[in-house]
Design brief:
The protein is an all-beta fold and about 220 residues long. About 0% of the residues lie in helices and about 55% in strands. It has strands spanning about 1-5, 10-15, 25-35, 40-50, 55-60, 65-70, 80-85, 90-95, 100-105, 110-115, 125-130, 140-145, 145-155, 155-165, 170-175, 180-185, 190-195, 200-205.
């Protein structure tokens, strides 16, 4: 099930069965649902993926209800989806696949516009969108072969710019800091820092040989 929690009260507000959408591998928040003039409404928006499903969720806080909306593939080849992230304005949704490419969804019509060029073998396990002030936005894809690939993002087209190999294990977690740096986690238990704006320079932060890491996140800003 998908649960929505009121963090102030510490109570579940509503839930929804995921029986027809199993497995669900990732859920991300997507701001608010927009009206036909692309203005924010009062309805919250989430997105999830897993298997062959990519789903947008609309949460009505007043009615305390949540409803799924399917993403259309528009006849394009199906994929197995592993991870996802929104653009900063929530107009695009990027979805990583087990075959190593990225689906680009335009949220205006909720249709897959196309796929990026595949990265190296191992699939994509985490995505991050970075939109630095005064510079063009980029998308970063973490792969099962221990690499991270940098893409430019022009409208709905992704173009590979640079790839760096960081670890011998799969990179499974990316989290964007306030200055555009990324915190990265791998299945070898290693944590790295990566600076996309500095030619993908990276540095080891910590090694943890006790167990593989599965996710990483910066704390929410105050």
């Amino acid at each position: 099930r998908l649960f929505v929690w009121d963090c102030d009260k510490g109570l579940a507000v509503t839930c929804r069965s995921l029986a027809t959408l199993v497995p669900v591998k990732a859920v991300v928040q997507g701001g608010f649902v927009k009206d036909v003039k692309r203005r924010n409404t009062s309805i919250y928006q989430l997105a999830s993926c897993g298997g062959r499903n990519v789903t947008v969720w609309e949460f009505n806080d007043e009615a305390q209800s949540i409803a799924p909306v399917s993403i259309s593939s528009s006849g394009k080849q199906t994929r197995s989806f592993e991870c996802l992230c929104f653009s900063a304005d929530y107009e695009l949704l990027f979805v990583g696949t087990s075959s190593g490419d990225i689906a680009v969804v335009k949220m205006r019509n909720r249709v897959v516009q196309g796929f990026s060029e595949p990265v190296r073998a191992g699939g994509i396990f985490s995505l991050a969108y970075v939109d630095p002030a005064g510079e063009s936005p980029v998308v970063l894809a973490a792969s099962g072969d221990g690499s991270i690939t940098l893409f430019s993002c022009v409208l709905t087209e992704l173009r590979q710019l640079k790839r760096v190999v960081m670890d011998s294990g799969a990179v499974v977690g990316l989290s964007v800091g306030r200055k555009g740096q990324l915190l990265c986690a791998s299945t070898t238990g290693t944590t790295w820092l990566l600076w996309p704006a500095k030619d993908m320079a990276h540095a080891l932060v910590q090694e943890n040989t006790v167990a593989p890491l599965e996710a990483v996140a910066y704390p929410m800003p105050d």
